[in-house]
Design goal:
With 263 residues, the chain is of the alpha/beta class. The chain has a single domain (2-262), classed as Rossmann fold, CATH 3.40.50. The protein is built from 8 helices and 10 strands. Strands 1-10-9-6-2-3-5 form a 7-stranded parallel sheet, sandwiched between helices. A 3-stranded antiparallel sheet has the order 4-8-7. It is globular. Bound molecules: fructose -6-phosphate. Fructose -6-phosphate is lined by residues 35-39, 66-67, 80, 133-135, 139-141.
């Protein structure tokens, strides 16, 4: 586990973009797992800038999004389809046929659909680098507390806390989705490398629990403790409740010195 502490959300996004761009340059046909949410905005903005100013090439990339609300059409402004196109895809040269986002408009045969999403990941050769955010309740993807730590892509009922967090983005009186399709914890753990981003004081408890607490289905991000190559990039506020700052800083310094390729 590596922890990179950044002063603010802007610099957190730049650091994440640096790591993603390095991975894309090393492997132009990278299979990249993507997340949505406000924390990822500075990452996508910087990737768009790198595409424009530094010719970062997305043409060989294959992408898989973590999740999507059930019941929202792709063109709804709160759908993750819309988010991804608005903030990344329409600004870079990723091929439309290489983009995979769970379909939130299906109305039945959920298990069959979710198995086919897993199959598409396997057919592509698995995910090389998975980007994650984290919820206030410690969720990754929409793997809410009590999710099985071996779970696969499936239909998931959202907690009241998540629905309330999401409500802020919907129009007053509009129905907020109660369910989503999400990759499972087992799916996420199979990615070769994981990059989790967290910003702001509302994430401080879940970050401390995920990194330094016990592995528990009550904080599904804690399952990442079982992952062999996970990097957390957090800003000062999100890292405020961590206890081992000095150790993380030494690990980072010596990793950069001894195995710079890991960064
Ligand atoms: C979204 C996702 C969620 C978010 C998390 C944090 O694709 O998987 O787990 O990453 O809810 O969202 P923000 O960044 O909006 O706080």
């Amino acid at each position: 586990m590596l922890l990179i502490l950044k002063p603010d959300k802007e610099q957190l996004g730049h650091e994440a973009a640096r790591i993603v761009a390095h991975a894309v340059r090393r492997n132009p046909s990278l299979r990249l797992g993507l997340a949505t949410g406000s924390t990822t905005l500075t990452l996508y903005k910087e990737l768009v800038r790198m595409h424009r100013d530094e010719a970062l090439d997305f043409s060989g990339l294959v992408t898989f999004n973590l999740d999507e609300y059930l019941g929202l059409p792709a063109n709804h402004s709160e759908s993750f389809h819309y988010f991804m196109h608005e903030h990344l895809f329409r600004h870079v040269n990723v091929k439309p046929e290489n983009i995979h986002i769970p379909d939130g408009t299906i109305t039945g045969n959920y298990d069959t659909y979710c198995c086919s999403y897993e199959q598409a990941i396997r057919d592509a050769g698995g995910i090389d680098l998975q980007i994650l955010g984290i919820g206030r309740n410690g969720h990754i993807g929409f793997n809410e507390p009590t999710s099985s730590l071996g779970s696969r892509t499936r239909l998931k009922v959202l907690t009241k806390e998540t629905i309330d967090d999401n409500r802020k983005s919907f129009a007053p009186g509009e129905k907020v989705p109660e369910c989503a399709i999400t990759m499972g914890i087992g799916t996420i753990l199979e990615a070769k490398r994981v990059l989790l981003l967290a910003s702001g004081s509302s994430k401080a408890t879940s970050i401390a629990q995920a990194i330094e607490g016990p592995v528990t289905a009550s904080v599904t991000a804690s399952a990442l403790q079982h992952h062999p190559d996970v990097t957390f990039i957090v800003d000062q506020q999100a890292g405020a409740q961590l206890r081992h700052h000095d150790y993380y800083a030494r690990v980072l310094r010596l990793t950069a010195e001894l195995t710079p390729d890991r960064l």
